[in-house]
Automatic annotation (TrEMBL):
The keyword Repeat applies. WD repeats lie at residues 492-533. It comes from Colletotrichum costaricense. PROSITE patterns: WD_REPEATS_2, WD_REPEATS_REGION. Pfam families: WD40. Residues 1-11, 407-425, 590-619 have a biased composition (Polar residues). Residues 1-35, 168-213, 400-425, 588-629 are annotated as: Disordered. Signal peptide: none annotated. The keyword Phosphoprotein does not apply. This is WD domain-containing protein. Belongs to the WD repeat creC family.
Length: 695
């Protein structure tokens, strides 16, 4: 909101009255836009009585309507002041050349801007008055507006990953050295991802985050379920699995008396809207400060939320929707909060369950949360103390302390050999397993708990083959983890500062990271090396995503947004990238080829624990027993290809924090709650005069 404009002359006049006269009579009303004319009349009368020259009333502007920064507005009725009414979402359709930008394939045009209403602080929340920017006291965790997109119907898939048939899979498999083989006892496609070649089960072309899941040859090997082999995690056998009742949360959201939830507003026409909406429409779940909204992006009145939840003090920092359990009558949503607590919410029935209540398992904020691929009940949460915790939505919580038998750290020696630091970085090799997924104690949460770092984890992403996990932290580290085996595979470091965001390429061969060095880095998982850095942002990069509708077996399109308010689009081709001179010539196959099948490589607990040793010939690195490097030194800029963007456009006036590609558009969001939808180029001619040119 615009600041209140007051002229210096008025300040002097106010001081004059304050020093010479008694306070204004009771007829003087609180200064609001509605009472402005009334108060000006009193002001002129008192000025005339004092033989004082009246002020130029035209130079005094009433305060603009805005949310108060203190709790007094909530008790305004008792003070005789009309209460502030919470505003609704605002949908606008800006037009003009400044709302377009050109790329090689055509012109992207802003379709609409949806501004989410920002809730005021709760009355019980103490206001923060003029915080010192240099203060060392920790500030409450917060996050900009992020969206979780879900479609309940089968949608068209990206053309390359689905429609090129067996020839594509053959090409990809040969390009990866032919190391990806089908196990004779495993299905053709990943049962964890619920994918099939023809989408016969209704999931092959479904949307999980607004983008259809890719089925490259990397996903053709069936990944085992997380915790497979642990009888304590095996689901109970049911004679009639087809009639198994879908589990729902325990508590009614609308009738909750929990102090954690302040208010729940459900659209009075919710049932009618759900019944009349198009079957291929997209739902969106969005957070903004202490509010969480359920929106229908396919509705012409999308500004009208289906449900809005206001929490008392906690801010929702992250959320995710389960693509496996979704249907017209059931949607599983998980939310991570600044208090460390987690809510499992089913919006159709308006029921919820609160997990990690009062931080009984981990009391630090949740920075990222995701359903484990293929699981109906397990999800992974990243806490800001550097921990990754696996929860089961159906289990009760219990006081958690690390299990003694799991205290040995993965990737470190038990005899202290590798703990003697090599250039001071070997401590980063440790994955401290506080509780293993193979533990027999699985009656309560957590299912598993791993400590990766002493600094916050900012983001993580599952690989398309559902076997690996990429994790980025505030300490500037990128870790590639085999989360099924709880094993660290690779560790990279940023050029400068911490990493903020991460994503996998649809074929699983590359990982993108963005961070505080204003760069996007492209990492080859197959070669265990950085292949390019992308320079185009002027501030921190907050989100990166691939565009699967413009990717093929050698060409990739991805986008990024940052705190410089810019949306950048990038194209890269494997052939145009220079291979680093220091790139290892080991492992030309898939990631799994570097860590063979356990039947081919038997390891005892002792050999597994001592598989990393110090090596003074590497720059702070460590090597596996087969000679492959796990820690990869930072490559200088002169030796790495630098990639410019194909388009760079300032698309908002506030720092951007989220980006996603759909078949029809690019969607961005900012920290102030603006959700902008940019339509892709169409066959119809679009006026491009004055449109932004690629930089």
């Amino acid at each position: 909101p615009a600041p209140i404009q007051t002229q210096p002359s008025n300040l002097r006049h106010t001081k004059h009255h304050a020093g010479t006269r008694q306070p204004f009579p009771a007829s003087f009303q609180p200064h609001t836009p509605e009472n402005f004319a009334h108060n000006v009349g009193i002001f002129k009368d008192r000025a005339a009585a004092d033989n004082c020259t009246p002020c130029d009333t035209k130079s005094v502007l009433p305060p603009p309507p805005r949310y108060p920064s203190h709790s007094g507005a909530y008790g305004a009725i008792g003070a005789g002041i009309a209460p502030m009414i919470e505003t609704n979402n605002i949908l606008s359709n800006p037009e003009g050349p400044e709302y377009q930008f050109l790329v090689g394939e055509g012109t992207y045009v802003l379709k609409e801007c949806l501004h989410l209403a920002t809730p005021p602080p709760h009355p019980s929340e103490a206001p923060v008055v003029n915080p010192n920017p240099l203060a060392t006291t920790p500030q409450p965790a917060s996050a900009g507006t992020k969206l979780s997109l879900i479609s309940l119907d089968v949608r068209a898939a990206p053309p390359f990953f689905y429609n090129k048939g067996a020839s594509t899979s053959t090409t990809l498999s040969s390009s990866l050295g032919g190391d990806i083989q089908e196990h004779p006892n495993e299905g053709r496609y990943s049962t964890e991802a619920g994918l099939s070649s023809d989408g016969g089960d209704g999931r092959g072309a479904s949307l999980s985050d607004g983008v259809a899941p890719p089925t490259s040859s990397l996903t053709m090997v069936s990944a085992p379920a997380f915790g497979d082999g642990n009888s304590a995690l095996a689901p109970a056998n049911t004679k009639d699995a087809a009639k198994k009742k879908v589990a729902k949360p325990k508590n009614n959201m609308t009738k909750s008396n929990s102090s954690f939830i302040s208010r729940v507003i459900v659209n009075e026409s919710l049932a009618k809207k759900l019944q009349e909406r198009p079957t291929d429409g997209v739902f969106a779940f969005a957070n903004i400060n202490r509010a969480f909204q359920w929106l229908d992006l396919s509705s012409p009145t999308k500004a009208d939320y289906l449900t809005k939840i206001l929490f008392t003090k906690a801010h929702c920092l992250c959320h995710d929707v389960n693509p496996i359990t979704k249907n017209i009558a059931h949607i599983d949503v998980i939310m991570g909060f600044s208090t460390g607590e987690i809510i499992w919410w089913e919006p159709v029935s308006q029921r919820y369950t609160r997990l990690n209540k009062n931080g009984i398992i981990n009391g630090t904020p949740v920075s990222e949360i995701r359903w484990i691929p293929g699981s109906e009940s397990l999800f992974l949460a990243a806490h800001m103390d550097g921990s990754l915790v696996v929860y089961d939505k159906d289990k009760e919580d219990a006081q958690f302390s690390p299990e003694e038998e799991q205290l040995a750290t993965n990737g470190s020696s038990t005899n202290g050999e590798s703990d003697s630091s090599t250039n001071g970085v070997n401590h980063n090799l440790k994955i401290q397993i506080n509780k293993s997924v193979h533990s027999k104690n699985q009656k309560t949460n957590p299912v598993a708990s791993w400590k990766l770092s002493n600094q916050r984890i900012n983001a993580f992403a599952f690989s398309p083959d559902n076997r690996h996990l990429a994790v980025v932290s505030e300490d500037g580290s990128l870790r590639i983890i085999d989360y099924l085996k709880e094993e660290l595979l690779d560790l990279y470091n940023s050029y400068y500062g911490g990493f903020i965001c991460i994503t996998w390429s649809p074929d699983g061969k590359y990982v993108l990271t963005g961070g505080q060095d204003d760069l996007i880095s492209i990492w080859s998982v197959v070669d265990s090396a950085i292949v390019a850095r992308c320079q185009g942002h002027q501030s921190w990069v907050t989100s990166v995503a691939f565009d699967p509708w413009r990717c093929d077996d050698r060409n990739y399109r991805f986008g990024s947004v940052g705190e410089d308010c810019r949306l950048c689009l990038w194209d890269f081709n494997v052939g145009m990238l220079h291979r680093p001179k220091a790139a290892s010539v080991h492992h030309r196959g898939s990631v799994s080829s570097r860590f063979p099948n356990p039947l081919q490589r038997q390891e005892t607990a002792n050999t597994s624990a001592s598989r990393i040793r110090s090596n003074s010939t590497l720059s702070g690195g460590a090597v596996d027993e087969d000679g492959s490097s796990i820690v990869h030194p930072v490559e200088p800029r002169a030796r790495i290809a630098m990639l410019p963007p194909v388009s760079s456009k300032a698309v908002d006036t506030h720092p951007l924090c989220w980006l996603e590609f759909t078949e029809e558009a690019i969607i961005t969001s900012c920290k102030n709650g603006h959700i902008r939808t940019w339509n892709r180029p169409t066959d119809a001619p679009v006026p491009t005069e004055g449109a932004s040119q690629p930089s």
